Amino acid sequence: MRSLEDLEVAVIGLGYVGLPLAVEFGKIRPVVGFDINAARIAELTTGCDNTREISERELREAGYLTLGSDAEALRDCNFFIVTVPTPIDAHKRPDLRPLIAASETVGRVLKPGDIVVYESTVYPGATEEDCVPVLEAVSGLRYNVDFFAGYSPERVNPGDREHRLTTICKVTAGSTPEAAELIDSLYKQVISAGTYPAENIRVAEAAKVIENTQRDLNIALINELAIIFNRLGIETEAVLRAAGTKWNFLPFRPGLVGGHCIGVDPYYLTLKAEAIGHHPQVILAGRRMNDGMGAYIASRMVKAMLQRRIQVDGAKVLIMGLAFKENCPDLRNSKVIDVVHELEAFGVSVDVYDPWIDPDNARHEYNITPVCELMPDIYDGVIVAVAHREFRELGATGVRALLRSDSVIYDLKYVFGAGEADIRL
After folding, report:
1. Tens of pLDDT along 131-180?
2. From the candidates 131, 261, 328, 372, which is the catalytic residue?
3. Residue 202 to residue 348: CA distance in whole angstroms
4. CA 255 centroid distance within chain
5. Which pTM value belongs to this model?
6. How, if at all, do strands 403-411 and 115-118 pair?
7. Is 266 buried (19+), middle (13-18) or exposed (0-12) by CB count in 10 A?
8. Cβ of 124: how many Cβ atoms within 10 Å?
């Protein structure tokens, strides 16, 4: 087993997870940051990060970081951290292709004594059942004899300036006690919040996948309560504030559940559960509830417009926000698109405005061309779908200026105060 001082680190995948990690290691020790996207490498080399997670100053401070898209740069490394995406496909099945491809890349440069650590969210067992066999087949080396593996789940929260990589406790695990100790020691060099060594890789994998499954279920409950309270004519936010005065009431809020984690991770767990003969009921019920919120929101908007005698077919509605969460440019698995499609099915003409996103990404991901500026007095309704700070600063008065008379403001995120919007989720 190598010593901590002998480790030559490589981070495979420089997105929301990999880049902050590569930067932190690059402040204290040599590290290779690798990404197959040459344009991404070129962008970072100029000091620009389009995810807005890392500033130009932080990139400069990572003086030991080398960036590249040529896998040959990985040959001198002996400690590989894989941080590629683990999405779901159109049928909501886990898509391990990026993970397998990254494993093949690492396998081609793997040497005796090397360690490969995965951070991507997976189901319990994926590291050793899906990734390690690829490493063995490509490298010709034997697991836990010639090379070792580990798992340390990412806990990145895009757009969160308070909970950063270094200030979040890091779960670590290794394929042998010696590998586990070395992996934990390396992460301790950059994680000021400390680490938590899990008993084994499968425990660490399971811990990660239930973190977001738990959040998904809690939000699903609040979404269902919001639907009930709306029918009862009760203000949901008022109920939640009142209930929140109890010390152990959990402060979840209703809304669209998208992004690369909460709306995805439960499907990884349910796939594994079904593979061992158990059909999850609670988890999938929560998923159905959250996946149906786009249709519910659109139908409620249409109902509110009809109540104001607005001709729905041909009406013009503005949706404010396309990113999956506030103050973040990440469009992955944004459920705002469900609202767009549902409204269009009613014959509504929909504009989308989001000052945080890259319009080219919106066109690529969703075939949407966002409007670049807000025009007054042209919309029959506005849905505030994302709580960007720019929307809070605009305020309800600013949004009213975009509307024709007798129109509808639907505030999904409680951006405005009580009474300032016509309807709230």
Report:
1. 999 999 999 999 999 999 999 999 988 777 788 899 999 999 999 999 99
2. 261
3. 48
4. 15
5. 0.92
6. unpaired
7. buried
8. 23
